[in-house]
Design a protein that fits this description.
The protein has 17 helices and no strands. With 471 residues, the protein is mostly helical. It has one domain: MFS general substrate transporter like domains (Growth Hormone, Chain: A, Up-down Bundle), CATH 1.20.1250. The two termini are 13 Å apart.
Length: 471
């Protein structure tokens, strides 16, 4: 059973560092990939969104297999580290290929996008699923898991935002901005180095803490038995409530990221330096969430705190885009107030990040709920199931972003300041409406999550008693 003792901060930092790769990947897929294949390579936004969604859903089916194999891995370094050491370098190579399609026709480029996207996402899973599965292994404490999970979000967002700062401040400073093909060469190289380096350094930094002989896995052999266990484990009631609720929040996240460049460049008309300020604002929101989540969780519990934060995020998102539609944004539409936008985004995003921190910590608590039912600890499988849903959600969100652009009649090769106001209004309206509908659906489901601090602690006592009786 994982210890309830507070973990050293150095271990938390090394553990969180591994999520830099996930943040860089999310930044690339959600912020730049759509606009790269659409505005740089000239493929229709709806087609690109559809291909990315198909690739991510196809790739997502590998996640439960990766989680189950990770749970079954037998080595002197434990169940997780071998995956981190093996996948890091191939991940960097495939990432470079994703942003460097060879000269070919549109059909060939679409196939290239699909294949490299599947491979890149699968390799990220081989790093992220074993890494995050260490959380419930490192600590069984209800609140310490939240404190540890914060570091994953802090470093994950830091990795993505650092690449965003590099992109807006260094790589895309020319006249073409994020439509400059040359900028993507430097972007892809540096992001690949960050992904590979962070995974390897994180694994080495945790090695002495987690490199122990894998516990015996008294399970049957054969592919059929493995799939039967996957089905039984992922049928856990708490897991199903949590992933169903998270699905809607993560669709919103994928939608928001995919439309980021369109909103910043065309709706809010940010200049290059203001793009950098925006990245700093986003990182500030992660720090705010990092600070406020533990006291909120301690006072209200994880579920109730997550619901409160979700409502706050939705309210301020509606205030921002509702103000645009009602002509209440100072200076809009020709010169909208950046300070007005920054203020509302700071509150909305701080709450959204805090909500996702709490929901990830709730997933760690599902491990013992399942263990009590099945007698198995399946950390890797549960988080792989969570990532399966997340990838599907991000793909759906990216697809929805492409559809919103199509419905808004948003032009290709658009120039900031020259887009018709009707198209901008359509972008704001469809985005706001989608976020609110999906957010309310997610909250209505999350209310049914059954694990509280009290039930978790009681479950730990029961499992410890059973373990002592068996020894």
């Amino acid at each position: 059973m994982a210890s309830a003792v507070a973990l050293p901060r150095s271990l938390k930092v090394m553990h969180g560092l591994g999520s830099v790769a996930y943040g860089v990947k999310d930044n690339g897929f959600s912020v730049f990939l759509l606009i790269f294949y659409n505005q740089v390579l000239g493929i229709d936004a709806g087609v690109v969104g559809t291909v990315i969604m198909a690739a991510l859903i196809f790739d997502a089916f590998a996640d439960p297999i990766i989680g189950e194999l990770s749970d079954r891995t037998q080595s002197k370094w434990g169940r997780r580290l071998p995956w981190l050491y093996a996948a890091a370098i191939p991940l960097g190579i495939i990432w470079l290929l994703l942003w460097h399609p060879p000269e070919m026709g549109q059909t060939g480029t679409i196939i290239w996008l699909f294949c490299t996207a599947v491979l890149a996402r699968s390799l990220v899973s081989m790093c992220e699923v074993p890494s995050i599965a260490l959380v419930p292994e490192l600590t069984g404490d209800y609140d310490e898991r939240t404190r540890l999970m914060r570091y994953r979000f802090l470093f994950g967002w830091a990795g993505g935002l650092l690449m965003l700062i590099f992109a807006y401040g260094i790589f895309f400073t020319g006249e073409k901005g994020v439509s400059d093909p040359a900028g993507y060469d430097a972007y892809s190289v540096w992001s690949a180095l960050m992904m590979t380096g962070s995974v390897l350094i994180s694994a080495l930094g945790q090695h002495r803490h987690v490199a122990k002989q894998s516990p015996p896995a008294p399970r049957g052999a054969g592919l059929g038995h493995a799939f039967a266990e996957i089905k039984a484990t992922l049928s856990n009631r708490a897991f199903l409530w949590l992933v169903s609720a998270a699905l809607f929040g993560l669709i919103n996240q994928g939608l928001t990221f995919a439309l980021t460049n369109y909103q910043l460049a065309f709706l809010w008309q940010l200049k290059q330096m203001e793009m950098l300020y925006y990245a700093v604002i986003l990182f500030t929101t992660v720090i705010v969430a990092f600070i406020i989540v533990p006291p909120l969780s301690g006072r209200f519990g994880k579920k109730n705190a997550a619901i409160v934060l979700a409502l706050i995020s939705m309210a301020f998102t509606a205030a921002l885009y509702g103000s645009w539609l009602l002509d209440l944004v100072p200076g809009a539409p020709s010169a909208p107030s950046i300070l007005f936008m920054f203020a509302l985004v700071t509150i909305a995003n701080s709450a959204a990040v805090g909500m996702m921190m709490l929901m990830s910590s709730m997933m760690a608590d599902v491990v013992e709920a399942s263990q009590q039912e099945t007698g198995r600890r399946s950390e890797g499988l549960f988080f792989a199931g969570y990532f399966f849903m997340q990838k599907c959600a991000v793909g759906i969100g990216t697809f929805a972003a492409g559809m919103i652009l199509t419905f808004a009649d948003f032009p290709q090769n658009a120039v900031p300041g020259r887009v018709d106001v009707a198209a901008l209004d359509g972008l704001a309206l469809y985005y706001m409406g989608t976020v609110l509908v999906l957010g309310l659906m997610g909250i209505s489901i999350l209310r049914h999550f059954p694990i509280s601090r009290e039930s978790h602690n009681e479950r730990l006592r029961a499992l410890n008693t059973s373990a002592e009786s068996a020894s």
